[in-house]
Design brief:
It contains eleven helices and 19 strands. The chain is of the alpha/beta class. A hairpin with a 2-residue loop joins strand 16 and strand 17 (377-381). Helix 6 (162-178) crosses helix 7 (197-209) and helix 8 (227-246) packs parallel to helix 10. The N and C termini lie far apart (44 Å).
């Protein structure tokens, strides 16, 4: 990711020629706050504002001093079409809920980036006809929220689709050209070699289009990683990939490189502790990397019990911690000393279980809002689903509502 640190300039209207529409430069939308220093966007941890028991960003800001949040995820509509939605279900055009979250953050002197894509769901690059229409859809998000930063999270299953990746990279280039000063990150899967075949193909697509974002970030988890040493090795290897792909020297490659981790227990049962985060942070800062972020603030709190029954949760980390422990590493990357907290994690009280809903049935059809019980937990459907087991995937159709 690029190493520009200057605050973004004042916005002005420009013509989005490639999309055939009039665009607003990031920050010019009504009610938009001034941009933060780019280092804050580089340090912004992910937050799902509508799912996974969203924490109050104002409380996190008060507790840690954090100023920037990476809101996730913008997708194509579940029913089809080339218009932006939150999670495939909530149209950006009529959104008030996320807008309220953003207003709260900005009122306290903070700001947000918006992440598009993620794991699962239909991406706009898959649904839109070409790069111009994809860019036009994303421009609606930038304009509505007056964004100064945006993240392209290109992973399963989209990054296996050559046409979709061409649309996404092309759209990113258009947005970068038509929104001067926009901080653009591109996030993709990490492997021991840095990134896999599809990740390398994505980099080649960017090279072929002459597109250079502020950074390319990898996610070194869910791939047989074991603590910080394996992650820093992957970052070293990814640096070599960036050098060979773009013809950069080592320092330039690091200046366009980022890390996106997962705090606590990963989807595949890997564990990343606070000590691991500190080690990777030291690596990132000593090599002058451009980005250090993690998934997610929704998970930056302790489960009850701590091991969470041996499964990964979207609402807690699965390791012993105080609330917002991992956010403090984002603070350090941004160059701010976090407040001193209690050194020993405070155990989370075991809540009194609520009554269980009707048992989940593999043969039944459930729609958004339907509630069931499974595995001694209650679950709420995020969208239409049938024969998808609750808790089988953090990114699946079921939201964990706690023990019952």
């Amino acid at each position: 990711m690029r190493r520009l640190r200057a605050c973004l300039g004042a916005a002005a209207a420009v013509t989005l020629a490639a999309a055939g529409t009039t665009a607003l430069v990031a920050g010019s939308a009504s009610g938009a706050a001034g941009a933060l220093d780019n280092r804050w966007y580089a340090a912004a941890p992910y937050l799902m504002p509508l799912d996974n028991d969203p924490p109050d960003p104002a409380a996190i800001m008060d507790a840690t001093g954090l100023k920037a949040f990476q809101l996730a995820f913008v997708l194509a509509p579940n029913g089809g079409g080339c218009t932006p939605t939150w999670g495939g279900t909530s149209p950006v055009s009529s959104d008030t809920a996320v807008q309220s979250v953003i207003s709260t953050i900005r009122a306290k002197g903070g700001d947000v980036s918006v992440s598009i894509g993620g794991y699962g769901g239909t991406k706009l690059g898959q649904a839109c006809a070409d790069a111009s229409s994809t860019a036009a859809a994303y421009q609606q998000v930038i304009t509505k929220y007056g964004l100064h930063a945006i993240d392209f999270d290109l992973e399963e299953p989209e990054y296996e689709n050559t046409a979709a990746i061409r649309n996404e990279i092309g759209a990113a280039k258009i947005l970068q050209q038509n929104n001067p000063g926009l901080y653009v990150s591109v996030t993709t899967a990490g492997t021991a070699d840095g990134t896999g075949w599809f990740g390398k193909q994505m980099l080649l697509e960017a090279k072929s289009q002459g597109f250079t974002p502020n950074n390319f970030s990898i996610m070194p988890f869910d791939g047989g990683f074991n603590g910080a040493a394996s992650q820093t090795a992957a970052l070293t290897n990814f640096n070599s990939v960036l050098q060979s792909t773009f013809g950069w020297d080592q320092a330039t490659a690091y200046a366009h490189e980022g890390f996106s981790g997962m705090n606590g227990r990963s989807d595949t049962g890997e564990y990343f502790s606070q000590a691991d985060f500190q080690t990777v942070l030291d690596y990132a800062t000593s090599h002058h990397m451009d980005r250090f972020t993690f998934w997610s603030l929704n998970r930056d709190r302790q489960c009850s019990p701590v091991d969470n029954g041996g499964r990964t949760s979207g609402t807690c980390s699965g390791v012993a911690q105080n609330s917002w422990d991992f956010a403090k590493y984002s603070m350090k990357f941004a160059g701010v000393t976090p407040p001193t907290g209690t050194p020993t994690p405070t155990p989370t009280p075991t809540p009194t279980p609520t009554s269980c809903k009707a048992a989940w049935s593999a043969s039944s059809v459930y729609t958004a809002g339907n509630e069931v019980s499974y595995g001694k937990h209650n679950w709420k459907a995020k969208w239409w689903t049938q024969n998808e087991t609750p808790g089988a995937s953090e990114w699946g159709p079921w939201q964990d509502e706690g023990a019952c």
